[in-house]
Design brief:
- The protein is of the alpha+beta class.
- 17% of the residues lie in helices and 26% in strands.
- It contains 2 helices and 8 strands; from the N terminus they run E-H-E-E-E-E-E-E-E-H.
- The chain has a 4-stranded antiparallel sheet. A two-stranded antiparallel sheet has the order 3-6.
- A hairpin with a 5-residue loop joins strand 4 and strand 5.
- The longest helix is centred in the last third of the chain and has 14 residues.
- The chain is flat.
- The N and C termini lie far apart (49 Å).
- The model has no long low-confidence stretch (mean pLDDT 88).
Amino acid sequence: MKIFRKYEFGSQSAATTKINALGVDEDGVPTHRHSVVRLGHIVTTQPTYDADGNVDTPAVLSDNYHVDVLWHIEEEDGVPEASWDAQMIWCKGVGVHSFGCSSAQAEYDLKCREVNPDWFPTPAPESTDDIVE
């Protein structure tokens, strides 16, 4: 089973420590099956440009260091590494990165809706008064 989660850390070194704790050999090669993508300090505000393509306002980067993990869980009812829970974050949609694993993405979306229901308001029912026959 694959579970997709997003995390943020106060620094790159804090993220590296947590990632290395999953298991690496003496050459720094992962010994675990999880897929880890280091996103770094992501853009929180997009830059703006003038008509000539010059930067008017530079991009603003997050103070935190971001990491996405596609957990490869052996047990069907398993969960991601609990020691990472304090760094877990949720964002609308997939944010700046996704693994392209449809089942993991669907599970992420469902969990995100459960944790943040106010981000996903229920659409108002369509009125039948506007229907022209």
